[in-house]
Structures are given as C-alpha cells and as structure tokens.
Amino acid sequence: MTDNSNNPFAAMFAQTQEMAKEFAKSVNPALGSFTPKGFENLWPTMPAEMMEALMGKQFNPDGLDAKTRLLLTLQALTIQGAIAEPQIRTTVRHAITAGATKQEIAETIAQAAVFAGVPAMTKAMELAREAIDGDEE
C-alpha cells in the first residue's frame, strides 16, 4: 500500500472532493449526503410484461425470452471483471422481475468464473446480493 500523503495528485483530488461537498451543501443541503450508488435507485425496474415485449419473444417468437437475455447480460458484465457495478445491480433487479430465481442468478455468475476468474465472480456475487437484499426490504 502506498502513502498518499506525499502524492500531490491524491492531495489535490481529496481537496477537490471536499470542495465539491461543501459547494453541494451550500446549493442544496440534501446533496451533502448524495451517493452515486443512490442514483441507480432512480431507475425503476420495468414490469416483466414490458421487458418481454421489448426484448423477449414478442417480435421473435422463436428467440430468447427476457429472463434468458438478462442472465446472459449478467454473465457478460461479470466476465468484463464486474467493474460495471450499477449495471450489474440493475440487471439483477430486472432479471428477478423477469422471473429469474436467486439460484439462477448465482449459477449465472458462478459459471462466469471460468472465464473471468474468482475475483470477478466474487465481486459480482456481492453486487447481486446487494440488489437482491434491496428488493427484499
């Protein structure tokens, strides 16, 4: 681990973050507690019928259903290294709405470990758990 106290870029970044927080508080006090993670809660989960119409078998009766497409998307996001955190949580929420079970979500992510490695799988599982717990509250 490196010591950032002697790093001028780290110090400048920390100072800029603090200035942004103070500015946000002066413009709107509620922005002082804003977190980027909270922003994804503004995106509603589409109803299962709408997902099926937009990306399911509505226009292609012999194609993949919405649940399968979302599970494939989840696996692709995991294989990328699970760096797209909001996208993984949102995809998990949509997959549950489309009918995916917790077991199917876990298996989809676990299978990605073959291609992405265990660290990416572990991170994706953690993000999926956050999304699932958020839906259960």
Question: What's the β-strand tally?
Answer: 0
How many helices does DSSP assign? 7
Q: Give the overall shape.
A: globular
The proportion of residues forming helix, as a percent range, comes to 55-70%
The largest pleated sheet is described as: none
Order of helices and strands: HHHHHHH
Beta-strand content bin: under 5%
Structure class: mainly alpha
Average pLDDT across residues? 83
Radius of gyration: 19 Å
| Sequence stretches where pLDDT stays below 50 over 5 or more residues | none
Separation of the first and last Cα atoms:
37 Å
Structural summary, described in words:
68% of the residues lie in helices and 0% in strands. It is mostly helical and 137 residues long. The longest helix has 20 residues, at 8-27. The two termini are 37 Å apart.
